[in-house]
Write a structure and sequence with these properties.
Layout lengths: L2 E3 L1 H27 L3 H28 L1 E3 L7 H22 L6 H24 L3 E2 L3 E2 L1 H25 L4 H29 E2 L5 E2 L7 H47 L7
Antiparallel strand pairs: 1-2, 3-6, 4-5
Helix pairs in contact: 1-2, 1-5, 1-6, 1-7, 2-3, 2-4, 2-6, 2-7, 3-4, 3-5, 4-5, 5-6
Keywords: Membrane, Transmembrane, Transmembrane helix
InterPro entries: MHYT_dom
Protein name: MHYT domain-containing protein
């Protein structure tokens, strides 16, 4: 069956993947320096939500860039399940990279589980189309997309763990470069998976009367950018407020030391 891609949406999907990657790296750094358990749990939950929405949005924007010669739509229930998987995968990833030490075994196991989770999210999103007959996947490209997801996830975990807690003035270019590479890798997994999909002639989309692609695009794109940018802003603001607070505390300590002990006379 003939298919086409909207190149503008393809470009947007890569940008969202890159922004989600940068958000993950930034949050890993923020979580690594938080001393209070409650604050860590709150930021971990918020980070998982933002990162999960970002990754999920990238994949759905990529799917929305794809059109067939028949009307298509997406089942709302299956679509929500794929979003939940993305959030859980993101929580797991942030939990792994903020460990005090990341052993090789943990890195590899985390990369495999995260890669399989991202692949599951992608193919569940494809299943939301409820195609009849079912989508047929070319085995080599199907396996290749999963391998790309695992390799990209492992590299992402290693980069995020390595760059956390580093000097901000020197590490920012590295974070931006790493986010770009990770974004392209995530997009590569998605479009490899899309290339693996074969739609037999005469296929019918069982979810054609479900959520329309146009509605999803109008809702997902601004929501994805909004939640990622707001999360980055709040993370930066929280870090800056904490640095002002720590500076004042250090200044007070210096003043107290210079004054020396106080002698009381009666």
């Amino acid at each position: 069956m003939q298919s086409n891609y909207n190149l503008a949406l393809v470009a947007i999907s890569v940008v969202v993947a890159t922004l989600a990657s940068f958000t993950a790296i930034d949050l890993a750094d923020r979580l690594s320096i938080l001393a209070y358990a409650r604050a860590r749990h709150l930021w971990l939950a918020a980070g998982a939500l933002a990162m999960g929405v970002g990754i999920w949005s990238m994949h759905f924007i990529g799917m929305l860039s794809f059109s067939l010669s028949i009307p298509i739509g997406y089942d709302s229930g299956v679509t929500c399940y794929s979003l939940i998987i993305a959030i859980l995968v993101s929580w797991f990833a942030l939990h792994v990279v903020t460990r005090e030490r990341l052993k090789l075994l943990h890195l590899l196991a985390g990369g495999v589980l995260m890669g399989l989770g991202i692949s599951s999210m992608h193919y569940m999103g494809m299943a939301a189309m409820l195609m009849n007959p079912a989508i047929q996947y070319e085995p080599t490209l199907f396996a290749g997309s999963i391998v790309i997801a695992i390799v990209a996830s492992t590299a992402a975990l290693w980069v995020a763990h390595t760059l956390r807690g580093a000097d901000q003035s020197h590490v920012m270019p590295k974070r931006i470069g790493a986010a770009c590479v990770m974004g392209i890798a995530i997009a590569g997994m998605h479009y490899t998976g899309m290339a693996a999909a074969n739609f037999p002639v005469g296929s019918v989309c069982g979810a054609a009367n479900g959520v329309k692609p146009q509605w999803l695009a109008a809702a997902v794109i601004p929501f994805a950018f909004a939640i990622l940018i707001v999360t980055l802003f709040l993370s930066r603001l929280d870090a800056r407020v904490e640095f002002l607070a720590n500076s004042i505390a250090r200044l007070n300590d210096q003043i107290d030391r210079r004054r020396g002990p106080t002698h009381w006379s009666f």
